[in-house]
Design goal:
There is one protein chain. This protein is mostly beta strands. It is built from no helices and six strands. The strands form two sheets. The protein has a four-stranded antiparallel sheet, with no helix packed on it. β5 and β6 form a beta hairpin. It is globular.
């Protein structure tokens, strides 16, 4: 049976955030998320959140310190 994560929306903090292909700032940058954008977090590992900007994507990694903490 497949397991699906429930997305946890987190707002991008002031200054924006780069969305990377891998959990590494030297990997390819897919795009830049703007302050206030909602990023759907699906998984967290160390200092990185993996998720998507919307159901259509893009999907990638954002540094956790560029996203609001849970609960605002």
């Amino acid at each position: 049976m497949p397991h699906y994560a429930v997305p946890q929306p987190r707002a991008v903090l002031p200054g924006g955030a780069a969305l990377y292909v891998e959990a590494d700032t030297s990997s390819e940058e897919l795009c830049v998320l703007m302050e206030g954008d909602s990023f759907e977090v699906l998984d967290v590992m160390r200092d990185w959140a993996w998720g998507c900007l919307s159901l259509e994507g893009p999907v990638g990694y954002v540094r956790l310190d560029h996203l609001e903490t849970l609960g605002g």
